Amino acid sequence: MRTEYEFVLPRGYVDESGTVHRRGVMRLATARDELEPLRDPTILGPDDPRLTIVVLSRVVTSLGSLPMVTRHEIEGLFAADLAYLQDFYGVINFGSDEDVEALLDAQRTGEATASTPGGDTATVSSARRSAAGETASADTSGVPAADTIPDDRARPVGRRHAIEEVPSTGR
């Protein structure tokens, strides 16, 4: 039985030194991974958006060359990367084998068309780009911008078309 899955973030986590970490590993969640965070006094309940951060920090076992993945790193992700990890989590934990394979195949296809030299990490130097007159552009791993995806076109498994609202419980 497979319990760990590699992923590649659409944009990547940028650490304090400017290194971008895109490749990582997520393991399957256990019941404890979903229950233990509810005992955390900073989590207000099952609908608290911070619950996602805590759960992901428990199941993401590696990210680039970071020695450890904590809440701090998950909180520092770009919104697109957080949404990607939420979708990835849902597919590997609750999807069928076919869903998982479709997600991994889509990821491999995106990797092949948008691979970067140096593997899972790259150094960002906005000062160097500015000096050269270049503008920084986000790497979206071959995913078209949301406004260019026709409504009738099927999206790859595990990718969001837009930000989805979390239902509130009248807090």
Helical residue percent band: 25-40%
The average pLDDT value, as a whole number, equals 77
Q: Approximately what portion of the residues adopt beta-strand conformation?
A: 15-25%
Question: How many E strands?
Answer: 4
Total number of domains: 1
Give unreliable regions as ranges: 115-119, 121-156
Ordered list of secondary-structure elements with their pairings:
Elements: E1 4-14, E2 19-27, H1 31-35, H2 50-59, E3 60-63, H3 71-75, H4 79-94, H5 97-113, E4 121-123, H6 126-131
Antiparallel strand pairs: 1-2, 2-3, 2-4
What does the model show?
- By secondary structure, this protein is an alpha+beta fold.
- It has one domain (4-148).
- Helices cover 35% and strands 16% of the residues.
- The protein has helices at 31-35, 50-59, 71-75, 79-94, 97-113, 126-131, and strands spanning 4-14, 19-27, 60-63, 121-123.
- Strands 1, 2, 3 and 4 form a 4-stranded antiparallel beta sheet that branches.
- The longest helix is centred in the middle third of the chain and has 17 residues, at 97-113.
- Residues 115-119 and 121-156 have low confidence and may be disordered.
